[in-house]
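REQUEST ID: PR-0412
SUBMITTED BY: lab tech R.K.
PRIORITY: routine
TASK: structure prediction, single protein chain
INPUT:
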Amino acid sequence: MMEWQVQKAVTKLQSNRLTAILKVQSAMMQEVHDYMHEKGLLQLMPVMISPITDPLNHSVLEGEISYYGDKLQLTKSMILHKQLSLLGDREGVYIVSPNVRLEPMERGATGRHLLEFTQVDFELKGKKAADVMEFMEALYARIFAKVKKECAQELAFLGRTLKTPHFPMKKFDSAELKRTLGSDWEKMVSKTAGDPIWVTNHEREFYDKEDLDRPFTYLNYDVIYPEGFGEGLSGAEREHEHPRILERMHRNKMELGPYGAYLEVAKAGLLSPSAGAGFGVERLVRFLCGAKHIEEVAPFAKVPGGKFVF
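STATUS: complete
OUTPUT:
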């Protein structure tokens, strides 16, 4: 007889519920690919290991490996690679990008964190925050329409009444939300919002562009899903000028050595102004399906602090 953890995993893999969820995910991803193609974005293949990866603005365990003396990182996100991919005659790129973030055990209780997940990551040359918001809202509108039309039977099976969001989405400043609602503003806003919303101005990584007219104000943005589903997308206009990048890295007390090649490219003036975002595939599928926990939508979910079978 199989151990209970193995039996639980097998039962999930055999379930009609998982089949319904995967049909929703497949419809969603087909629309993503169609939309990106229509908009002229070129698809990159994922970078899984690299000397550099996203430093993140919150602590995770490092996924470092050694290969014949070289130190390589498991990809946390392809943000720096997206910027570098625009060096040529390319106006926009996207990736269906697997990411590994070895989150602390306590994040397993949030219902939305996985150690490995996938995001649709895109970058647009010469664009601003407003352009990305418009781009993404059009994609959301198409995803919701497609899923509601093609997956009505699956949504009914899952007990999910999917509401089409209102566009344009409302925008809020994170500093103002923190002043009025306190440090737990994200959870409170997510529970009370009727639709997905934009929240701007987060103090984060060195590559998120600072508004020089308003120091310590940042030209970045998140999407917060309603019904308590929380953050589902992060993006920003990018720092691309070498002096600004160095200033931001020094401010964040970062070690420059690992980013030497990236800084050489920036110093040569080769990075373009750009803006982009990345949204979690599993988080959006969870929201579309109304799943209580993100592990329900990932066949081989690895939840922080959990036991891993497959």
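NOTES: Residues 115 and 249 are 26 Å apart (CA to CA).
REVIEWED BY: pending
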